[in-house]
Structure formats: C-alpha cells, structure tokens
Amino acid sequence: NAGVTQTPKFQVLKTGQSMTLQCAQDMNHEYMSWYRQDPGMGLRLIHYSVGAGITDQGEVPNGYNVSRSTTEDFPLRLLSAAPSQTSVYFCASSYSVQGTYEQYFGPGTRLTVT
Amino acid sequence: AQSVAQPEDQVNVAEGNPLTVKCTYSVSGNPYLFWYVQYPNRGLQFLLKYITGDNLVKGSYGFEAEFNKSQTSFHLKKPSALVSDSALYFCAVRDFTGTASKLTFGTGTRLQVTL
C-alpha cells in the first residue's frame, strides 16, 4: 500500500491564484481530513469527510473548499490564495470515524503565497 | 471544547537518559488520547494511543505514555533516549462533536537528544 499520498510537495502561488492540493489513500479509509501546520500553532483542522459525498468544516475552513466524490480522493481547493495561507498542508485518513482509530498522514505540501 | 497543552516547546536530554514529554488535556467526556511524532520534512507518524484500560500504554520505538485521570495528563516517556528520537512530538485528543470525531493537537514539543 502507498498509504496517503499528496501532490505537489512544494508550490509557490501569487496572491489571488487558485489551485488544488491532491490527496489520495489506498487503504479504503472512511474518514479523511485536511490540516495546516504553522509554527507554534500545531495542526489545525481545515475540512474533513466521513465518507464519499459527505464533507464538513473544521476549525479554519475559510478560503478552502473540499469535495469527496470517491472514497480514495479528497482534494483541497484554494479559491483565491492569500499570504496568510502560506503553510504546510497535511492530509490524513482513518479507518473509521470512531474515535479509537489513529490517523495516517501524508508527507505534506509546503505552500508559499507571495 | 476540548484542548491539549504541551507546556514545553523543547526538551533536551542526553542519549541513554530517560525522557519525558508532557501533555495535559481538557475534555468534557472520556478522553481518547494520542501521541504522534514528526521527523524533519515528513508527515506525522502514530506512536501510541489511550482509549481505555491500563493507564500505561506502550507504543512504537520503545515509547510509552501514562494516563493520569486525576491530573488530566498523558505524558510520553522512554527509559533510554536515542539520538534518533530527536523530532517534534504532538499530543492529541479526540473530540466528539456533531456527526464525526475531530482530533485536536497540541502545539508540539521538540525533543533534542545529544551524545
């Protein structure tokens, strides 16, 4: 299994540009989520999904959209990039929404918005 | 709302010495607690979790954690540190809100193990 994969690894955007961060998992996991990691702030939840066709907002959803058309894929869209969105983005998945299951993380995408 | 606190930004320990990385939590119900490790330029890796049962939980790479309900703590420990343990460590607590559970992370503690 490849686990959780993310593309691209690095990206530089200009303010106002849009882009999609890709995330895929091959473990047939029910639950997927997106986090951003900023220095001194830990990881903050952006959006999550409990299954295909179902998404919900996390702690910091503004400026981001998600969709979940298949179990495997959970792309994150930046609608109009802002310098405040400069961060490292992690996708994660978990076998179930039940709280006892640990999450598996992708390698991350480092995004810089100028 | 639930929260996690990691009071130390950095912990320094000599190789071979025991290490402790501290974590305290706040939840309204029973906590599900997790420790993750992040090596440079990598994603987070699961180390161990407490769900129920024995207060001492053993995990990967020789790490263990002690759940203390009265002190609302879940400190990560290892009897003998290795230089290769140097990394960023995150404590997390599971929250049940709405239709799904969410994981809330602490701000992380950088562990530096030196020879």
Brief overview:
Chain A is mainly beta. Chain A is built from no helices and eleven strands.
Give the amount of beta strand of chain B, in percent.
over 45%
Structural class of chain B: mainly beta
Helix content of chain A: under 10%
Contiguous helical run count of chain A: 0
User: Largest interface, per-chain counts?
Assistant: A-B, 27 and 25 residues
Rg of Cα set of chain A? 13 Å
Order of helices and strands of chain A: EEEEEEEEEEE
- The assigned structural class of chain A equals mainly beta
Largest sheet of chain B: 6 strands, mixed
Major beta sheet summary of chain A: 7 strands, mixed
- Structural domains of chain B: how many: 1
Strand content of chain A: over 45%
Helix content of chain B: under 10%
CATH topology of chain B: Immunoglobulin-like
Determine Rg of chain B (CA atoms, Å). 14 Å
- First-to-last CA distance of chain B: 41 Å
What is the class of chain B in the CATH system? Mainly Beta
Q: What's the rounded overall pLDDT mean of chain B?
A: 92
- Name the poorly predicted regions of chain A: none
Tally of DSSP helical segments of chain B: 0
Description:
The complex is a heterodimer of chains A (114) and B (115). Chain A is an all-beta fold. Chain A has strands at 4-7, 10-13, 19-25, 31-38, 42-51, 54-57, 64-66, 76-78, 87-94, 104-105, 109-113. In chain A, 0% of the residues lie in helices and 51% in strands. In chain A, strands 2, 4, 5, 6, 9, 10 and 11 form a 7-stranded mixed beta sheet that branches. Chain A has a 4-stranded antiparallel beta sheet with strand order 1-3-8-7, with no helix packed on it. By secondary structure, chain B is an all-beta fold. Chain B has a single domain (3-114), classed as Sandwich (Immunoglobulin-like), CATH 2.60.40. The radius of gyration of chain B is 14 Å and the shape is globular. Chain B starts with a strand and ends with a strand. Chains A and B meet through strand 4, strand 5 and strand 10 of A and strand 5, strand 6, strand 10 and strand 11 of B.
